[in-house]
Amino acid sequence: MNNNGDKDNAGVDTNYWRSFAEYFKDDSVKEEMKSEFVAGAADDLNLSEMNGFTRRHFLALLGTSAALAGAGCVDYYDQGEIVPYNKKPKNVIPGVANYFASTMVDNGEAYGVLIKSREGRPIKIDGNPEHPISRGKINSRIQASIMGLYDPERLQAPTEGLGGKNKIDWAKADEKLATAIQSAQEQKKTIAIVTHSVLSPSLNEILNDLETKGFKVYSYELASGQVRDQAWAESSGEGAYPLIDWSQPKIILALESDFLGAEGVAVEAIRGFASNRSALFKNKVEQFNKLYCVEGQTSVTGLNADVRVRLSPALQVDFVLNLILKLKDSLAFDPAILELASKASKVEVPENLIRDLIANKGKSLVYAGDKVSKQVHFLVNYLNEVLETKAYQSGSSRKHLRNLQVSSDFASLAVEMQEGKIGVVIHLDSNPVYHLPKDTNYAVGLAKVPLTVSITEFENETSVACGLVLPAHHALESWGDFETRTGLYSLQQPVLNPLYKTRQKEGVLLSLSQGVPYQETAYREYVKAFAQKTIFGKMGVAVSFDIFWKTALQIGFVKLNNAATEKKKISTGFVSEVTPGALPKFTVLLASSQTGDGRLISNGWVQEVPHPVSKVVWDNYAAISLKTASDLGIRKYVTPYDKNYDMLTVEVEGRKLTLPCMMLPGMADDTVVIELGYGRKNAGTIGMGETGNGIGVNAVELMSVKGGLTPWLFVNAKVSKGAGSYALVSTQEHYSLDGEITGEGPVGNALAGFGADKFLANEVAQVVEKRGIVKEGTIENGFHYHRHPVFSINDLHQYPGYKWAMAIDINKCTGCNDCIVSCNAENNIPVVGRTQVNKGREMHWMRIDRYFRGKTESVKASFQPMLCQHCDNAPCENVCPVVATSHSPEGLNDMAYNRCVGTRYCANNCPYKVRRFNYYNFRNNLGRKDHWTGKGYYEGKSVELMNNPEVTVRSRGVMEKCSFCVQRISEAKQKAKEQGRLVRDGDVVTACQSACPANAIVFGNINDANSEIRKWANSDLNYKVLEELNVRPNVNYLAKLRYEETVDKTDHKEASGHH
Amino acid sequence: MSEQVKDFSKHIPLVENNATSAQLDDVIAAPMEKYPPIRWWICFAVALSLLGFGAYSLIRTVYFGIGEWGNNNPVFWAFDIVNFVFWIGIGHAGTLISAVLFLFRQWWRNSIARAAEAMTVFAVICAMIFPIIHTGRPWLAHYLLPYPSERNLWTNFTSPLEWDVFAVTTYGTVSFVFWYVGLIPDFGVMRDRTKITTFMSGVRKYIYTVLSWGWINSNRHWQHYERTYLILAGFATPLVFSVHTIVSFDFATSVIPGWHTTIFPPYFVAGAVFSGFAMVVSVMTIVRWAYHLEHIITINTLEKVNKILMATGLMVGYAYGMEFFIAWYGQNPNESFVFYNRAFGPNSLGYWTMVICNVVSPQIFWFRKARRSILVMSIVAIFVNIGMWYERYTIIVSSLSRDYLQSSWDRYEFSIIDIGLLLGSFGLFFTLVLLFTRFLPVVAMSEIKAVAENNQPTHHGDNH
Questions:
Q1: What ipTM describes this predicted complex?
Q2: Is A339 exposed, middle or buried, given 0-12, 13-18 or 19+ CB atoms closer than 10 A?
Q3: Which class in CATH covers the domain with range A226-397?
Q4: Which of A351, A531, A1044, B168 is within CB 3.0–4.6 Å of A778 for a Cys-Cys bond?
């Protein structure tokens, strides 16, 4: 049909034509056909080439001026004006997250993190999968610390005057500081820098330099492994206690150590510990390790123990000596030690412990906690040597850049302050006024110093006592480098521009050390140069430093090879120091808290995560045993209708503290355990609690310069019932303890005299037993669970494509709560506050159910993470009148928030009670003082930037619950589709799974025959909670295995789950 | 006298004092034609105050959220649904009296049917408020209606709450129509009785005229009327049983121990009739005294009501016992625990209040003297209403607060706003009742004349 053969028709199909010009192949048409759009429709906008004032010219100017007018109002610090996305930043694709490797510090350790950032704002912190400490997992405190970045009460400008009254600009602050330092140097006065553990080698370099210029550095931690390190240094001559490979020992004996909880690097310990607790199938059960705990507190570690011995922390020396005595026939001990051991007071040592230690020489580890005395550590070091432990890591070891100071050092600093020998005190993100014992007189001394400076993110007890407060960058805005272990060099990089007029805290010191004005980039250049000098130089790699640096930043850390250190011999010279103890009347242990050392007291996520043992939120308390409670005349039963706990007065050498006391099963008698890190006095709106008087009580009040057995352990305290009572708020009621249910109701009380209480206790105990929510088997005999076949006249619904399911191994779960905070951050879960939790309205989509069993003294526990089970026959779905919750074709139980009217029927009909209702607009409810006109703490504030844009923010009146991280499933499916494949196993990682340091959670497509989830679902240990209801849940649990010998037949009739 | 008692075939007059038609009209119409006495105003003020408290509580609830109530995580339903079921139950007596007893030719019903029906309508109004305001977002409550939506959204017909929507609206509509149809001849009477002397009496006459739909008391009207009334009675009768059955499905079809039982439908219906009759006694004893209707709402009639009260009380008591028996016999640990917990757990006070009020207190009606004592029956009726409220409280709150997983168990404590809404619903109910006694005939004039001995056509042609 193309008749004009003389014309070139390449590229143009003339079957259809638009114009004669096209038909006859005009050249201009050919030119036009090259580009898809007609001229002017899609050319790059180039104003200079345009003639005159065109329409596009006008629009471009209009748009630009509007953008500039808007952006010009926001003067980001030192960054000039920012025009949002007039030209799109190179690496930012709207809707696609960027991930940055960085490092964050918690409790004296630097963890590699991966920060998820959306459109330039960080929204979630996870572990860096490559980082040797984190291995992709990060603890709840670091997860929650992202809230600190966006906290509305972050300090935003320098202030002067006590209490931070007057805002000043940086120029004035610089001048003030420089003048004070100059005059101090002229008068030969010391300039003290008070900081926490120095983990950064470049900061250490700066400090070293400053120390040559009349500065003196003091570093401290509220709680640390200081005592263990000292003991190790003294008995082996080496600097730091070796790193422990927790996956190596088969037998672990923990002495008053909460290594799976609040002490040390729990993420690493849990990972190693749980890796030896996998038993999918019976033939793998030999891998099981065995944890013995000897402790006075009821720690989360103790509740994970296979065998737990209650013992006053003051008697640990005697316990170890008794153990040595029992082992002496099988192992070779120094005679001096044996003689010492014979003097020890008698303490019961479990027979199976002795047997296991002898049988597992080289495969065992004895580990004493942070808080026990040096003597115990001496003995433990020696015992490990005799037991030939191989759990000490040989390659890398802990590196202390600077030794920590002790309270007495600060006491002498305070004396110097009072004598006028100190010119300036600079608090580098530290809070000694709160952390140090009162009798250091630190606060008194501080008042005598001409200029006190606090470089901090938030107002704290020290900053209000300082004359100059300099706001610091959040970790996500900072540069940094960290070296906490030999050969591991972790890097910190900012993931966003500083939100406020804050400064890099190390940079402030750098400017002092170099004597030049502060520059935002100076510290970055310093870190870079330092790395070039110390790391790059050593590595001798064949790339340029720039490439090395960029790669290192991308990965987040640099690993250097270490020569394996030779193990030093443990000396027995400590014998003279060890004196066996006697049972004191009252022992007081100040324990570490999973909420940290008080820094995170204003972090709602941290405070609202239930304590792993007591499930108490927003408070601390004195934990005592039931027997001690009745000795002291303290009411034993606290009913859900009357949660007022009696007060307890604890007096140590005249230092008094009155606080609510909670009876915890498993506590040693005559022992009081109080957690540190509460009772802040200047901690912002949230940190001061709903009453404004603070959250909990400050256990530092009991500490002193002299200390007890250790700074945190005291004997012969005076303990008595205090006046009044206080309601502690918990997410799980106290009466979950079997058989404790009677005597709570008026009728139950009235009938108790006729023996009805015993009858009912028995009935209730049986009911609890028969429910089989947590099913158990034994390691020797396995798990026998008879699943009754379900008959149905209907065919089951088929899920031909993906079918999402989860499995949770209860053997691995230690109850650490990291999954909860990860879920909170991923799913925009609001903080509801203490009052609302008290009313039972907590919003966590995920919870760790803790079930005690056995007797109150020899208590055992099981932890069961509980979340929406995404039942195939979901009872919630059929009762929703508006179909707001329904099943997806992939087996997910979905919520349509828009459609939900909030009848709450779904939540009533959920047998797992995992649905959460927005009783208020909880996003804006926290801290709301006046109901009608008041504003919530977070209302309309920067915290809203933290929300994950992939997850709907729920308003009030709407039901919500775990979605199996459906946004992550969608993302993985989209990616798979782009690549033309199916979602592979491991593509979808839920937030809880990604945070679980124990790797106790797997998630995936159960229709995939090769998937991990399928393997777990087919496990011999698999069961589903409340399976008998035939709701067909999609969360599988692996039954808890216990050693046969630890199963108490009297309290535990159906250990293997027969019924 | 003794001969009379022994002679069971002896006809007991339904209207005493040989009242004539005119006298009956006068006494029934009196409250509508006279300025209300001071005690009416006092009652009205109290009822309005309660209603105001309820309105305040309602405003707070809608403005701030359900968090104003005591509801929490395991106890997602509490006073809201307790009140709903309670009021729906109260609404059962009216239809039962006017429809079921009508079909069974129990003419003693005529003196109390009108008031009972009015109470039904008012109770259903009170009840319908709660499902609407108990939602987290009441402004979206229309999502529960299956209206054609451009978003192609439809309601879930498997949800018992959706069944409730139909059951309750149907019941409300039929009850209202039935009540209104019964009122038409009386509106005619009132229209004719009202003389225009003032402007307001003109308005009054106008309203009565409109409402009476041109009723002229003709034979033809009566014929149509009786047929309609009979058909409506037939309509309403199954509803008496269906509504509370469906309300009970809210619980019975769930998986929650203490809710998931097959006994609920008959148990709920018996309970509803029980509470409804108790409310009839409570209101009627006051109305007959306040408006001097002792000869119309006779002791004999009230005695019959009390007999039903006792019978349904025994049914409810049987259900309580049977629940425990099945819990034990079924050996389902979750189920048996719920019942132990009801009787001896933290909510046991409510449970025993319920047993004493509902099972023990009506036993006094075994005695004829008690059945015929206004004081005794008033006290028992109040007891039964308290007991029936606690029954729903026990079922809903104690079951929810401790279901399957002990980890989620929690207590329930009501808030002042919960109290406000409960009292507010009583305020609304009594406000409506008081207005009803003021503007509508509390006794069906036409029906009562039909059973008044003095007004029957006799073959003697005299007034014997």
A1: 0.91
A2: exposed
A3: alpha beta
A4: A1044
